[in-house]
Design a protein that fits this description.
Blueprint (H helix, E strand, L loop, with lengths): L2 H22 L11 H4 L5 H12 L18 H6 L2 H4 L3 H11 L3 H6 L5 E3 L5 E4 L2 H23 L9 H10 L1
Antiparallel strand pairs: 1-2
């Protein structure tokens, strides 16, 4: 056998092997990066309602790290007049404002005689001593819950004692 014949045999065996491999393993579609929408996390509905408030009323709903400000009592009714502008429903607005007004960042701004602001950032009342005390209590209660949740071990629940006593009585 000459070199030409060996090269021809090699090429023929190589092509047969490729055909066999293709038959056993059909070609896979090329992997593509997922579209940005597919990769996006599910957004909390409260956060989704807060974003338009921050966009349209930045003085009343400042973006973190700016401190929150005490909001005017009855701000929900004022904001309800702007539902079309905000592009959210009344229920979403209620969820957004109630979520905004809960939490340590909001309660920290609720100090006695602090000005309450309307949607445009204009003073519309002050925080009373009772409201400031309530906010301080809420913040303290939240810190207590946070500590309790952090200290809670993630162990399986122990078997009920009453069952083992019943088993002993049955014997």
């Amino acid at each position: 056998m000459g070199f030409e014949q060996l090269a021809e045999l090699r090429d023929r065996l190589r092509s047969e092997k490729e055909q066999q491999t293709k038959a056993e393993n059909p070609p896979r579609p090329a992997k593509r990066k997922p579209a940005p929408q597919a990769k996006a996390r599910e957004v909390d509905p409260a956060v989704e309602a807060i974003w338009p408030l921050q966009k349209h009323f930045p003085l009343a709903f400042p973006v973190n790290p700016a401190p929150k400000v005490p909001l005017k009592e009855g701000i929900f009714k004022d904001a309800e007049q702007h539902l079309e502008l905000l592009g959210i429903t009344s229920e979403q607005l209620k969820l957004g404002i109630s979520t905004w007004c809960r939490g340590n960042r909001y309660w920290a701004c609720m100090v006695e005689n602090a000005p309450r602001l309307d949607l445009n950032g204009q003073p519309a009342g002050i925080v009373t001593a009772g409201q400031a005390l309530y906010a301080k209590q809420q913040a303290s209660r939240q810190r207590g819950k946070d500590r309790k949740n952090r200290a809670k071990p993630k162990a399986a629940a122990p078997a009920p004692v009453a069952d083992s006593a019943a088993e002993q009585a049955a014997d």
